[in-house]
């Protein structure tokens, strides 16, 4: 595949805005699509302030920041992704919603375009099956926040071609990321290990073993993690954590992956973490 010049990013939340920023910082023309205009407004603000932080730290020049901002377009019209060479989807973690999007993207994008998903846990093979280009569908899983975190987990579906894999790897390398490769099983590598730990932290809180502060301090100072599991859950989004636990539970068929009732209760109550101001902790 020829070098990627035009990047489409679908979903302008925490992850999509960071992926769009990365693309623009590394010379790609980027269309960031979200159905919610408020999300686009927030994405624009967060990308500008993140780029400005890179300038303040001397990591990029003011000119590079201005150029990157000039390479970004925000839209709610999916037809604008027609000329994208490579698309990364970062919408809500729901297989049905993602499949609908893949069907639409398959219709409107050029036949050579690669369709990548930033899914944390959902089967790439099943997402690919919604399209007529199964060999051009792949998992490209960035970590949060994408401009800072060094890892990209690449997931090949059952039909992903070598060409698609190499183009995705080349794009991740252009973003200066370290790559790991996973087989297409629920949760892949990182979330298969991380989410049960977060879920267990919720069980530890739920069963009254310790306070939230002691659980987080225990894991920070006791195991040298930079952030405690409950703080991390708030950062990721409790809704995203719950969706991933459900995928692990259904996909791996073991009761050890059953979501903790306290995690379910927080999500039901709209306490989804930092992005709404309250989760396990209160940020208001
Ligand atoms: P988010 O809730 O912050 O953002 C999702 C965005 O997608 C919202 O702005 C929403 O308006 C938009 N959206 C929903 N349906 C859409 C559609 N059909 N078309 C266009 N836009 C649509 O979510 P997030 O945390 O950025 O997660 C997005 C994806 O990235 C999920 O698949 C998640 O599992 C994955 N992921 C999340 C993290 C994390 O730490 N939060 C890390 C790695 C991967």
From TrEMBL:
It holds the Pfam family 3HCDH. GO terms for molecular function: enoyl-CoA hydratase activity; NAD+ binding; oxidoreductase activity, acting on the CH-OH group of donors, NAD or NADP as acceptor. The record marks 141 as: Important for catalytic activity. Keywords: NAD, Oxidoreductase. NAD(+) binds at residues 11-16, 34, 93, 98, 120, 144, 275. Residues 7-184 form the 3-hydroxyacyl-CoA dehydrogenase NAD binding domain. Pathway: Lipid metabolism; fatty acid beta-oxidation. This is 3-hydroxybutyryl-CoA dehydrogenase. The lineage of its organism: Eukaryota, Viridiplantae, Streptophyta, Embryophyta, Tracheophyta.
